[in-house]
């Protein structure tokens, strides 16, 4: 799933290519992906892109027509860029393409989604805040005004595992399964630690780990074309997706806990005092 750094990379890439360009087509190939009807998706045709912004994991193309094209790539979605948009006809139900957008210089992009579980979402709105997922977003952890005390306030009183808190978009925007694993590894913190029990020193470490990890990942994604962002993300992971490999800090084995549709990775030596997390949904530290 693309998270904040990759979505920021896509925003930067698109901003450098489509701002000032007029949209000549916006074709929906997967009708279930389109979540709005007013304004219609056809309202994007003939308007010029004025900016590209990120809201959490959402991408927002603003236009001079007062319409925003907003999309969320979900777990298996991606953006495929073309300097010359293919002339092939999109056949609904016969392709992974959910949306095709073209510009007046012949360039464009497809939004694609792999797999059978379709969660990619496209919105045509007058204000990004009309998108429910954006309206619910918590603060962006890389915003210049976000402080360590802000994080402490968000965690206070939450008897929820810190892994879940970091992934909750209504608490902190933009962090998902992969980067929450990375942040907690850098912070030397168990994914099952309760947010409300963290000490001041724990919050200090978590804030530093979160801002540094995300800032480094955003910097790594900057300037890369969409085709290279996924591999760059994988290469940058210390523990996420590296089950069975050596922890780059201590050399212990990276371990996983599997859930219904994903997993978390961690280092027992660095994060749980050497204790192995039981591999079940309501896992507790093994005695």
From TrEMBL:
Its cofactor is Zn(2+). CDD domains: BaFpgNei_N_1. It comes from the Bacteria. InterPro entries: FPG_cat (IPR012319), FPG_N (IPR035937), H2TH_FPG (IPR015886), Ribosomal_uS13-like_H2TH (IPR010979), Znf_DNA_glyclase/AP_lyase (IPR000214), Znf_FPG/IleRS (IPR010663). Residues 2-96 form the Formamidopyrimidine-DNA glycosylase catalytic domain. Gene3D superfamilies: 1.10.8.50, MutM-like, N-terminal. It catalyses: Hydrolysis of DNA containing ring-opened 7-methylguanine residues, releasing 2,6-diamino-4-hydroxy-5-(N-methyl)formamidopyrimidine. Transmembrane segments: none annotated. SUPFAM superfamilies: Glucocorticoid receptor-like (DNA-binding domain) (SSF57716), N-terminal domain of MutM-like DNA repair proteins (SSF81624), S13-like H2TH domain (SSF46946). Keywords: DNA damage, DNA repair, DNA-binding, Glycosidase, Hydrolase, Lyase, Metal-binding, Multifunctional enzyme, Zinc, Zinc-finger. GO terms for biological process: base-excision repair. Residues 238-272 form the FPG-type domain. One of its GO terms (molecular function) is lyase activity. Pfam families: Fapy_DNA_glyco, H2TH, zf-FPG_IleRS. Belongs to the FPG family. This is Fpg/Nei family DNA glycosylase. The lineage of its organism: Bacteria, Bacillati, Actinomycetota, Actinomycetes, Micrococcales.
């Amino acid at each position: 799933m693309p998270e904040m750094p990759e979505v920021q990379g896509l925003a930067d890439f698109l901003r450098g290519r489509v701002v000032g360009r007029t949209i000549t087509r916006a074709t929906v190939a997967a009708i279930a992906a389109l979540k709005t009807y007013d304004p219609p998706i056809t309202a994007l045709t003939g308007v010029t892109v004025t900016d590209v912004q990120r809201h959490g994991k959402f991408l927002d193309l603003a236009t001079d027509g007062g319409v925003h094209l907003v999309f969320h790539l979900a777990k298996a979605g991606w953006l495929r860029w073309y300097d010359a948009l293919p002339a092939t006809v999109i056949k609904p139900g016969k392709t992974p393409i959910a949306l095709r957008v073209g510009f007046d210089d012949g360039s464009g992009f497809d939004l694609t989604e792999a797999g059978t579980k379709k969660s990619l979402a496209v919105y045509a709105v007058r204000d990004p805040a009309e998108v429910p997922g954006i309206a619910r977003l918590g603060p962006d952890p890389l915003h210049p005004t976000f402080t360590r005390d802000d994080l402490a306030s968000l965690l206070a009183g939450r008897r929820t595992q810190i892994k879940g808190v970091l992934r909750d978009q209504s608490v902190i925007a933009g962090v998902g399964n992969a980067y929450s694993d990375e942040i907690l590894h850098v912070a030397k913190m168990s994914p099952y630690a309760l947010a409300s029990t963290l000490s001041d020193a724990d919050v200090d470490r978590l804030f530093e780990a979160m801002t540094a990890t995300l800032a480094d990942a955003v910097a790594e994604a900057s300037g890369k074309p969409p085709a290279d962002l996924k591999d760059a993300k994988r290469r940058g992971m210390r523990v996420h997706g590296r089950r069975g490999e050596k922890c780059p800090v201590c050399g212990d084995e990276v371990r996983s806990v599997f859930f219904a549709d994903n997993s978390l990775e961690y280092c027992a030596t660095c994060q749980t005092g050497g204790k192995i997390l039981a591999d079940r949904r309501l896992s507790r530290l093994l005695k």
